[in-house]
Amino acid sequence: MKQLLLVLIVVFSCTLLCSQTYEITFSAQGDATTVDEVIATNLSTDESVTIPGDGTLTLQATATSIDRVESMENFELFTNLSEGYSEIHLFSTTDQEVSIQIIGLDGRILTSHKQRIPYGSHSFRLTGESKGIYLARVLMKDGARGLKFIQSKIGDNRISYAGNVENHEMLKASHAAYTLSYSPDDHISYAISSGDFVTMIVECPAGDKTIIADMHECIDGDGNHYPVVKIGTQTWMAKNINTSKYMDGTEIPYIATTAEWGALPDHNSGKGYGYFLVEEGDLYGAIYTYGAAVNGIPLSGTPIQGVCPNGWHIPSDAEWKTLSNHLGGTAYASNKLKSTRSDLWKYSPNGISNNSSGFNALPSGYRTAYNGAANLGGYYARWWSSNQYSSSWAYYCELTYANSGVYLSYWEKSVGICVRCLKD
Question: If phi over 0 gives left and psi between -120 and 50 gives alpha, with beta otherwise, what is residue 255?
Fold first, then answer.
């Protein structure tokens, strides 16, 4: 009997844990101190909601072991088909007596239960004597409600009090203007904006909290603003750069044809930029030769600004390693860096990617050194490092569609790949 009671307590505790409702508010600090808007996205389901800066987001759990089948204000009914019972969760606004009846489809009252309950949220468990559909009738001071439920196994006509539901979960949900559903281990992405500043934060729901966004100016030579994300001790752009100018206004040579790209020299003066697909430049960013990325100046102990905004620089090989190590090492980190968009990444072992870092890596492809051909969009994400390997080769960082590794290697300097900037 004690073992059965322990099992029931564990089952009920897990049910409550899986149905937590959290309230999230937002604030900003740094180069901006107000929040205008937040876009919250469940990266597992792509469900999204936009919240005003002074609004509150309610994260409503989707129960995994029991499914909600019907609800109304301050009442929810859940059915656990595998275990053969249902639960009514109700919120009482006062100390009162509640009466619950199970009614068959023929109108017969099969069983009833009366109990005095205090203010707060409460749970009652219901079972029927045979498989089928039943009506649960709840009578309280403010009226009666009828909720249908499904009985999936043969049992007894029984109603029992399952306990007080702490934290008033339903009250939060019933009055929430901005809600987002989640399951355990889902990652929620927050795009927190203040004017032109946008900071990305990705978290697993864990409780009521205020999320504080560190705002940083990130504006390129064309006046484009970029979202940023803090990962460990580093702050990165959350998007590849797409600019035609350095910050002093100097234009970067635009290479329009494959022949022109193939003719670029493999040394630091071989500057050029272009696109894998011109029409997708805003999504993927531009691609640059190494000479263009570092503006002709390879790494020599001082961070290289190159094509990056003021206050930002081309990451070194060591800084790419710092990023990878923070996310579990070069053998595993790419799953936390890659976007969850399986429509962009090919052949989805990418399904295990969760973008939990907020880095949002996309498979942008590249242009070859020899003939400028555009290659392998959808398969690889690559970015320049500031380190050069030799006078004609330089280091880069790569993620692939096929596994979870982060690769640090070197390539001809006239290859065209992307640039992701790191804050000084």
Answer: beta
List of long-range contacts for 348-352, beta carbons under 8 Å, 24+ apart: 348/401, 349/401, 349/402, 349/403, 350/401, 352/404
> Parallel, antiparallel, or unpaired: how do β-strands 197-203 and 188-194 relate?
antiparallel
CA distances from 297 to 119, 293, 411 (A): 69, 9, 17
306: left (phi over 0), alpha (psi -120 to 50) or beta: left
Sign of the torsion formed by the C-alpha atoms of 409, 414, 417 and 420? positive
94 backbone dihedrals φ, ψ, rounded to 5°:
-160, 170
Closest CA to 307 of 243, 386, 232, 393: 243
CB-based contacts of 27, cutoff 8 Å, min separation 6: 33, 35, 210, 211, 212, 213
Quote the tokens at residue 138.
């709840």
Residue 276 C-alpha from the chain's centroid: 27
Q: Which of 238, 233, 241, 235 is nearest to 190 (CA)?
A: 238
pLDDT in tens, 336-350: 999 988 788 876 544
Q: Tell me the per-residue pLDDT of 98-148, one tens digit each, with 9 for 90 and over.
A: 999 999 888 889 999 999 999 888 999 999 998 888 888 898 887 788 888
